[in-house]
Design a protein that fits this description.
- The chain is of the alpha/beta class.
- The chain has one domain (18-140): Rossmann fold.
- The protein has helices at residues 26-38, 49-59, 75-84, 102-110, 123-140, and strands spanning 18-22, 42-46, 63-67, 92-97, 115-118.
- The chain has a five-stranded parallel sheet, with helices on both faces.
- β4, α4 (102-110) and β5 (115-118) form a beta-alpha-beta unit.
- α2 packs parallel to α3.
- The protein is globular and about 30 Å long.
Length: 141
């Protein structure tokens, strides 16, 4: 008697999606950009939430990586504006913050973010979270 083993793997999202990085720190922005581009993602970036809102409308990225503490408008306020606009309310968003307090994760998710990462980022965890949120977005819609 012979057995045939079928291996079914969870289909991983193929990189190539456009990701908008909103981060005011140049070194953090470069690290995130380089990590994403090595994995095949396309990136656009800005230092301010105000410019990020414009880019989100113009470019319709698959995902936004949003620093919370930004000059001018903060990341939470920017996310609320994205969610209020029918053209951008479906864009997935991950909060990126230097605050690693446990309650902050719940707070950011309650504010409407789809994911949460602390700085400094762990490359492996960061990429896993990007993948998880992109896959979640696909299942939703």
């Amino acid at each position: 008697m012979s057995f045939v083993l079928f291996v079914v793997s969870q289909e991983k999202k193929v990189a190539g999606e456009l990701i908008l990085i909103i981060e005011d720190n140049e070194k953090n922005r470069k690290l995130v950009r380089d990590v994403l581009q090595v994995k095949g993602y396309k990136t656009i970036e800005t230092e301010t939430a105000e410019e990020g809102l414009k880019l989100a409308l113009q470019q319709s990225p698959a995902l936004i990586l949003m620093d919370i503490q930004l000059p001018g408008m903060d990341g939470i306020t920017a996310l609320k504006q994205l969610r209020a606009d029918p053209k951008t309310n479906g864009i997935a968003a991950i909060a990126i913050t230097a605050s690693a307090m446990t309650h902050n994760r719940q707070t950011m998710l309650a504010e409407g973010f789809d994911g949460y990462q602390t700085k400094p980022i762990s490359v492996k965890e960061f990429l896993a979270e990007v993948q998880r949120v992109l896959n979640l977005k696909d299942r939703k819609g």
